[in-house]
């Protein structure tokens, strides 16, 4: 029934015999034995008395002395010695603590588990360590409060003070963990950390209280809150004055999160060795007692103050917007996104997922509500039209001048006093919108990388879901800027391009395509219509190429080519063609497509596929030749024209009889 091996029993018997002999000598007053040896053997015997099961201990004594009374007397003696030793060890430990003798403190600290006093030993040792930490923390806080403001780290002095406190506790845990594991066994580091944690909370509270007092933190928050609630605040705070305070708060929280991760790792490792049944929840709950309400309160004030800083600074950047000639964008784009990125980076540096999510949400709403609205209002003013364009639209000169004056009046608010400058301002606004969309996309991509680094430090799946949700909102915001860009391009296409292109395409009607060979040869040497159209399009798009980004210019060119294709279809259906006239049209169309292909990276031939097929029909020698390209004979060619549209194009050839067209089976 015993769990001890035979060799272990022999060792126990020998130790008991020797120890009881020394104890008997000591109780009889024999001074011949060294008191140090007696104490050493007594401690060893008492350790056996504490650790060996009592039934085993009694049987061994009974076997040695063969007397029940001897066993009872010896056990009573051991129990009395155990109590005296407990008192003695506690007194000696208290004396060592009073003297500040770390070596003696650790010496007696190691004896407590031999007496079965694990919790008492850890409590007394923890009390000693806490007194040392408190003394050093008070000293550091006194230096922080009384330091010269001109010092380089003065703006972060409370964050540095909190860092010293947390580093000191981490150093204590790291230094004494081997002692605890060796003499107390695994699973007891948790108890020691619990004692240290209580002192950590008290000292951290002192640091935070001084920070709030010295930085006027609560008063700043109240002013910010009042400013954000009231439309006309009675008192406002300069955003720049919040900068160092916000930085210090995030640094304090980051240091706290780093310390918490350290504690979690240490306690989890200790539990894994000693108590496999301990749940991670116990570790998490214990670790998070640090600043459970303390740092949450600071971050709770930080978030609206950071939002205020962001909104106010962005508003200033918009108000101070400037544009230099030759630049595609104005200053507010880079300025605003520098501010947004700065605020998010600062929130990210706090290592708080909730804080980061809140600031990502604010950084989504600020560009959307404050910045996008400004750009939208500028685009609503429209692209200034020239007097010629107004006349082409059928508007009188008087009305045209009045509208022009009204438009100039709107732009005058930004110091724009001419139509040319107004045009440049509109193009710059388009570029601003496009860059904003790209900046938001870049911001999201960079945040994904930064957040992945944060998650490697121990963030959970639930926190990952929070971040993903916030980042998806950034995608939606970027899409809204893209939609706004499309609206602006549609306005530009409608106002500046369509009124010009339509008359140029309509001039195709003035060129006869019912021609003979002499006229065809003359056109071959000189193609006046398509050459002039290409020159006009070059001049028209040159202004936009210089003033728009490559992405927007390509999009605008695509809109222009779609417009040209659509107007050409309408115009061609109003003309008549001879056989050579159809051939001439095919040459003109090829020249136009070749030019447009060089000015954009978009696919052009697809936009002109219907016109190309119309040219093919107009080049047929006879009506029935269409069957060689239709239906099963079409090969790789995909017809974009319907049978009804083919029948509409065929009559444009003056030499095609209507009877032949009607007999076609398409």
Automatic annotation (TrEMBL):
Membrane topology: Peripheral membrane protein
GO cellular component, one term: Golgi transport complex
Domain COG4 transport protein middle alpha-helical bundle: 78-380
Pfam families: COG4_C, COG4_m
Keywords, ordered alphabetically: Cytoplasm, Golgi apparatus, Membrane, Protein transport, Transport
Biological process per Gene Ontology, one example term: Golgi organization
Gene3D superfamilies assigned: 1.20.58.1970, ESAT-6-like (1.10.287.1060)
Localization: Cytoplasm, Cytosol; Golgi apparatus membrane
PANTHER family: CONSERVED OLIGOMERIC GOLGI COMPLEX SUBUNIT 4 (PTHR24016:SF0)
Family recorded in the similarity comment: Belongs to the COG4 family.
Name of protein: Conserved oligomeric Golgi complex subunit 4
Taxonomic lineage of the native organism: Eukaryota, Metazoa, Chordata, Craniata, Vertebrata
Name of the gene: COG4
